[in-house]
Each structure stands twice: as C-alpha cells, then as structure tokens.
Amino acid sequence: MASTQLIFPNALPTIPSPLSSPPPHYPFTSQLGPLPHSKRPNLLTHAKKKNPWLDPFDDGAAPEMEYGSLFTDGKQAEDPRPPDDPENPYGFLKFPQGYNVELTMLASKVRGDVRRCCCIVSGGVYENLLFFPTIQLIKDRYPGVQVDILTSPRGKQTYEINKNVRWANVYDPDDYFPEPAEYIDMIGVLKNRYYDLMVSTKLAGLGHAAFMFMSSARDKVSYVWPDVNAVGAGLLLTETFIPPSSNLSEGGYNMYHEMLEWLGRPARNIPREPVPPLKVSISKKLREYVEGKYKKAGLEKGKYVVIHGIESDSKASMQSRGDSDSLLPIQVCAEITKEMRDVKPLFVIPHEKEREEVEETVGGEASIIFITTPGQLAALINDSAGVISTNTAALQIANALEKQSIALFSSEGKGRLFVPNAEDKRCVIIPSKNGKLAEIDVETVKNATKVFERSTVFA
C-alpha cells in the first residue's frame, strides 16, 4: 500500500529572505524605487508585509503618547461617552447577569478621577445645609461628577434646594441600632452604584468604617472620633479627619473645614480649590406654591419680615446641634415686633399646635404660616423684605439669598462662629449679654429692625 503524503504548500509561513531588505549602502532605495540591476523587483513589497506567525501581537509602531497630560496633569474632563442605555442612570444594561464589570479605566484610576461620589451627612436640616459648599467644591474639583447623598429623613428635605445632587437616599447614619434588613439593603445599593469617592461627616468608629468599607467604594474618607472610639476605623478608611470635639456642629459655619481642606488640596498642577459660598436654588414650582400660601395669609411680596426660631419641641425647628439655646419664647418675639409699621411680621411656626399660642400672645390679626420644609422656607424668605431669626436654618438661608437679616444669639462668640463676616452678608448680630437667649435686650432688637424700613424705601 502506497503511503499517502499530504502536502499543504500554503499552510507554511512565508519567511522573508534576508535579501528582501535593501543593502546598507543604498539608504534611499525605498524612496527611489527598485535597484536598476535587480532581478526581483517585487522583493521590496514583500519586505513590509507583517508575519502574524512570528509576532501575533505586533500591530506596528505605537503612536506617541503624552502620559503627562493623560495621567497626571490638570483636572479631569467630563465623561464624553454616552450611556449605552439613555434611560438607565447607570449607563449600562448589556452585561449578562452574574458578571462584575470593571467600569474604571486605568487612566482614571491613576489620576484619581471621581465620576460618582457619595456623601453620608450626619445631622438634620442645619448640618445638611452647611454641607452645600462641600458639594459645590466637589463639583468644581471634579468636573462632570455625579453626587449622591445619604442622610436622615429630615436632612433629605434640604436637597430640594440644591441643584448639584443627583439622588438623596434616606438612611439615618446616627442610628446606632439600624434594622438588619435595612442595613444590608443599603450596602447592596451602594455597591451597585460603583462609587469612586465616599465621604462621611459621621464620626466613625469600627462599625461605621466597616459600613463604608463594604460599600466597595475606591476612596473612603470620613471623620473619626477624637477618642478611643476611633480604634480600628483608620484601617478600613483611605483618609480620616479628627475634629476638635465629639460634636462636629460646635464648629459653627466652618464645621467641615478639615474635609474641605483635603478635598480642595492642590495636586497635578492644579492650585488649591477655593471654598465656594453657601448658595441655594429654588424651583419655579416651589415659588408658586409658597406664594399662594403667604397671599392666602394676606401678605404681599416684599412687604413682610419672616420671624423664625419660635420656641417649640417640634423637630422642624431647624436648629443647630451645636447651639442648644437657639429658640426664643413667643412672648419675646411679640415684644420685638410690636412697633413694626412699614413691614408686617410673619410668624413661621414649626407645628400647628403653636398657632393658638401665637394668636393669643400676638393678637388675632397676626400673620401666621405653617412651614416645616427648608425648601418652602427658602421660597418664603426669597420673597420677603428680610428675616429676624435665632440660630436656625432660616438665618443661613437668608445669608445665602443675600437678604437683610437680624440674628439673635445667646452669646457673641456663638454669633461670630456661626455667621463669620456678618457685615458682608447684610446680617446684624445681636447677642445676649448674660448668655441666655430668652433674656436678650428687646430694645436693642427694636432699634435694629429699622433696617427693614430703609430697605422697603429703596426697594
């Protein structure tokens, strides 16, 4: 039996001959054409053909790459890639179930770009309101970043007047014994959002640090306890800040200055990012709703002064955790507003049960409005002639809207702490002389209310 021999002449790789390259003493052969005495003029064309068998990964010469501008220098650019699914906020729905997709590019990892940021804010309305400059700093430092908020139910209402926040989720970080199902569900929500940066204003121990660690965020930044309760937290966090006391709100207006200093730090040929002022934004729908409320109370735009900080046990008082003595009895408020003529005082109550007491003290013709959300309060202050308030969120909103305000504090130190540069903010600070807000000098406050008369004349 004759042996069968299979021959595949085309299957073997064609290895170019050494004669295919031009001789060394003809440096310009490829430009001048084939040699005049060459018998194989097609060798030059075969010389430039790639051989995939020798190096299958050789795609030719790599283009020049500027690693400096791509990896190290300057701010991040906004993400130019459109989402795969425009209706999906995450931008992807094409991956099979069970696959963990790597979303961050190498350049983004090296540069430290932040595309998604989560902020866990401890406290109520006042603390969340003072966090607005931090959110704006993050937006300025990382262009195109998406900011989400995790805070208490009262704190979530504050972001109705913040245009820089994508989502605000309710999860009270100050709850030391959360429900296990809620705790696990929130960890799953945070993991599925692929955050690049997570910042927290809650003083973290090992428990809160573990919560942030399990969220799988790339960088985890938080305040920690200034005592032994912070043991173990630093092992699970990327960066930590130690406040001067266990109550962060005692820092006043600049209560987050340690975090702001780190977020705005100079890096990659970028100078230090300045801390922006506190600003709020009010929607048209909210303005129209509040306008209907104060017109129903018989008031006109720009012809009333908001009185805020009436003593109450309601959670809607919007006072700061760093100033426990920041609510004024209604009897003192009635004495202050008794001689106001050009503008009409509007008493804002945090609960309907306070209405009857206000009517009995001030009179049946008193203008009273029931408002509990910071968004409605901001719209009310925006249409007013000014604000007379204790140390509540109404004072900070008035300063953000550049409205004339009179701030009543229990001490002069508290006034300087919570309202720095009061003259530039059109704010008159009146402290109590004996350290008790209820015993503030009423005559001094009455003389200060004349600024609203001048403001209505030049309006």
Task: Note down, in words, how this protein is organized.
The chain has about 450 residues and is α/β, with parallel strands linked by helices. The protein folds into 3 domains: about 20-45, no CATH class; about 115-265, 3-Layer(aba) Sandwich (Rossmann fold); about 285-455, Glycogen Phosphorylase B (Rossmann fold, 3-Layer(aba) Sandwich). It is about 30% helix and about 15% strand. The strands form 2 sheets. Strands 3-2-1-4-5-6 form a 6-stranded parallel β-sheet, sandwiched between helices. Helix 11 (about 285-295) crosses helix 14 and helix 14 (about 375-380) packs across helix 15. About 35% of the residues are buried. The model is unreliable at about 15-20, about 25-35 and about 40-45 (pLDDT under 50). It comes from Cypripedium formosanum. This is NAD(P)H dehydrogenase subunit 48.
Query: DSSP strand (E) fraction?
Result: 5-15%
Radius of gyration: 33 Å
Order of helices and strands: HHHHEHHEHEHEHEEHHEHEHEHEHEHEHH
Judging from the principal axes of the Cα atoms, what is the shape? elongated
- Strand elements, count: 12
CATH class of the largest domain: Alpha Beta
Strand order of the largest sheet: 3-2-1-4-5-6
- CA(first)-CA(last) distance: 115 Å
Note poorly predicted spans: 17-21, 25-35, 41-47
Q: CATH superfamily of the largest domain, called what?
A: Glycogen Phosphorylase B
Largest sheet: 6 strands, parallel
CATH topology assignment of the largest domain: Rossmann fold
Structural class: alpha/beta
Number of helices: 18
Average pLDDT, all residues: 84
By CATH, the architecture of the largest domain is named 3-Layer(aba) Sandwich
Domain count: the total is 3
Amount of helix = 25-40%
